[in-house]
Amino acid sequence: MRLRSGPMQGEKCHVTKESLMSMPTIDDAAKVLADPNSYTDETGLHAALARLRAKAPIARVEVPDYRPFWAVTKHADILAVERANRLFTNWPRPVLMTAASDDMGAAAGIRTLIHMDDPQHRVVRAIAADWFSPKAMKAMGDRIEQLAKQYVDRMREAGGECDFVSEVAVNFPLYVIMSLLGVPESDFPRMLKLTQELVGNDDDELRRSASSDETMNALLDMFGYFQHLTATWRETPTGDLGSTIANARIDGEPLSDIDTMSYYAIIATAGHDTTSSSIAGGLHALIEHPEQREMLSADPDLIPLATEEIIRWVTPVKAFMRTAAEDTTLGGVPIAAGDSLLLSYVSANRDEEAFTDPFRFDIEREPNKHVAFGFGVHFCLGAGLARMEISKFLAELLPRLKSIELNGEPRLSATTFVGGLKHLPIRYSLI
């Protein structure tokens, strides 16, 4: 599907009262959240979400193949749900999937951190927490700088043209997270393919096939791979995150096989695809907003603010789900026990009541209270690592960048969960 000129491509996206009135019904607007292809058309997506925020910020969605849910599109309402983590639980439906995929995942017993609630979530999260602490990030800084330089060098060696996504953006964070886990470098390409098949299961180009069975097979392939590594790590522990997970104990007992494999899977996928989407989408935004790129090049001290704006702008995790544990109300709307809610982070990060001029890409934006990493007890475990990777890459690329422009049509992945650009052809000149 063609990527039309929209918020990532132009200076601003103005959604007027007139445009809201001419748009489809609220029911149709809400349905975009269950349509993976809607995320390939950012103009249409953001127009629909703006209509929901204005007219029905908590809207009922009933579409074929999916169980019903409430779409929550306002920043304040999403924070309210995230804060009330005992009232609105992650289990049993943390991600929007078809009913068939929901049932298949439940039958397989998959329980990653995003499936868990406290107190179990807090205990299991603690197993890896030290690996993503500020102290750990500081220790990793030099290595990530080296990797950033390595991948910018590769851009120069490519001769001034490349598909930035496939040649740089997916590989840099992949190398970081797989090295952290302790996966042998020779297996990195296999892990890239598996992670793309899992998070890209709604995209015709990225998925293994249109069959939900094949998506489950991709997950089982990843589990099988890590099952072999687990045996090795338990026999001979090493100083990496994978070994830490393999040998973790809770109340004196090791994690179950399914919980161990699920832990690897969430670290491998969340630690890779989200960051690659942010790096690619961030570079795209800087290409389309040359005045912002020039400002950032002239003042590298703005990189931390620019990193936050890139993460808000791209919002690689599109949504998470929650389930009401009891009857309640949200924004004046009655929510019954057992009802599912979709928290649209994409919408919240463009909420006119939460951000000044939200459709303006502004590397000086401060404060920037985006929810791209979630909020509350489920705040992204690897947020510090993602920020560091983006910042280090910008710090390496910008001083060496003499010119850059698009060299073809950028293309976004179809998704309802995690995604961003899958192709970004560029032409550039590097020192």
Automatic annotation (TrEMBL):
Taxonomy, superkingdom: Bacteria
Cofactor dependency: heme
Enzyme Commission number(s): 1.14.-.-
Keywords, alphabetical: Heme, Iron, Metal-binding, Monooxygenase, Oxidoreductase
One GO BP: cholesterol catabolic process
Record-level Gene Ontology MF annotations: cholest-4-en-3-one 26-monooxygenase activity; heme binding; iron ion binding; steroid hydroxylase activity
Cross-referenced InterPro entries: Cyt_P450, Cyt_P450_B, Cyt_P450_CS, Cyt_P450_sf
Principal EC category: oxidoreductase
Pfam families for the chain: p450
Claim: Oxidoreductase is one of the keywords in the record: yes
Family: Belongs to the cytochrome P450 family.
Protein's recorded name: Cytochrome P450-terp
Lineage: Bacteria, Bacillati, Actinomycetota, Actinomycetes, Mycobacteriales
